[in-house]
Amino acid sequence: MNGRVIKIFSDFYYVETDFGIVECKMKSVLKKQKEDVYTGDFVLLEQFDKNSMQAFISQTINRSVIITRPKVANVSQVIIVSALKEPDLNFEQLNRYIAHCEYHKIKPVLCFNKEDIDDTDDLKEEVSNIYAPLGYDIIFTSALKKTGIDELKPVLKYNTSMLCGASGVGKSSLINALLNDKMLRTLPVSEKTKKGVHTTRHCELIKLFDESYIVDTPGFSHLKFDFLLPVEVQKLFVEFDGIKKECKYKNCLHISEDECSAENITRSMKPCRFDSYKKFVEEAIEYQEKISKISVKKEANVKYNKNKMMTKISHKKRNLSRKTINQNINLED
Ligand SMILES: Nc1nc2c(ncn2[C@@H]2O[C@H](COP(=O)(O)OP(=O)(O)O)[C@@H](O)[C@H]2O)c(=O)[nH]1
Ligand SMILES: [Mg+2]
Ligand SMILES: [Zn+2]
Known about the structure:
By secondary structure, the chain is α/β, with parallel strands linked by helices.
């Protein structure tokens, strides 16, 4: 029997199967192998008991994309939700989410909610001018007035979509609007834990329609770009896609280098995009400085022999020198 993990709650895995939702535990073999099962994983089940609707997960199958923070598997797109107003649109935050999608190679869809309280069309026009030429899909919605929901539905069809965006932008309201106010379902939860309330802190796969799921999470939990090298940040901005033809310098950041010849790219970049690019590069530089400090420390472990750098090896780990080995052989003789 197989199924899909739609929610994880402490040691319990809720798996959607043809028989309904089955409460599972991980087989001890999997636990021993330190195999991680994520929300969104397709799994094989064993020892299914129809009466109690309980079983054991024996294996994960067909895993494509995995996001580790939060733990979600097999996400096919990310819906980045921003509010046009209340809270004010934060372009840096939006660019950050987009860059994270590019990093994970997952398609982002930009959803701008609360269009009902945005009295002019200026901001809508601005975001369209910035993001449509970059190839990103844009949808304007109002979860309150239920506008744009019919445009959002076909985008979600046959996808597992992860919602992300700051708190208060209307993610839960959008899901409720999509579910026609059926309210966020809470799942049967173990008698032991007695907790069945819906919470966004745990990722949960919500079935909207056939083979269409939405993951209700606050989104990527680690948003700072302190895990990349500065030159890698440009890969997260589609504006730099043709950069190799423009700038021939290998480690160029295309920001202030005198010889950089990519000015027509950076000059045509929208200021809000270029500002975010520079900000993320700064974060990556901080990271690089941190790791180079660590490597300087490591270098204290080297000695110089005839101007050649050699790593000092502790006495125990050091291989015996040929002379010692020969001496030992001689002794055994
Ligand atoms: N005017 C207006 N308010 C909205 C809309 N969507 C959500 N809200 C309100 O914004 C607040 C935050 O919504 P919520 O769905 O909890 O946001 P979440 O934190 O992203 O899940 C709530 O008071 C909602 O009623 C909308 O489209 N228009
Ligand atoms: Mg919410
Ligand atoms: Zn350059």
